[in-house]
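Example 3.2
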Amino acid sequence: MYTGIVQAVRPLLDVTTYPGHNQFTIDLTPELLDELKIGASVSVEGTCLSVTEINGTQVRFDAMTATLERTNLRNFKAGQGVNIERSAKMNAEVGGHLMAGHIATTAEIVELSIKETGAFIKFRMPAEWGKYVFPRGFIGVNGCSLTVADVENNVITINLIPETLRQTTFASYKAGELLNIEVDHQTMVLVDVVERTIKSTLAREMPR
């Protein structure tokens, strides 16, 4: 589990493509390396990946084809920065909201505006996932816990404070690129339960 508070943006040193998976090598800080072991889970741009190798400050992760197809990791290139968060420890402060690192879908950036007066990002969700997003609700975007400002026709608007821009990769993105989206699990369960209840009720009441 993760808290949705990105701990650092770290450089992606290498991307190697193999049949069935890609391997990523990321340079981590001493703080992020503390007690890190093979098999440990790390959030990389919001995607839960397991450590496969540690060589000094260089840490390797594998992403299978299914993960690449569902996330923006398939577009990773050596030299770019990626959001990193170590898995949460018991009794640790949860500064954002609990996240699993299981990406539901990707969303295309419609607009990214960064000005002295403020910053915001707009992205378009696939309709089947947009129904789980509500104004003032939580959403995980590239591993960052964010509050939804507005929802209109599956286009989500999120305001970005300067600290979020400083601590994450958002400023490096541009319109047309993809973001990793993790919807709030509790919201998803509630929406699905309500939908099933309504369908069941209508089915009973409709004349046959």
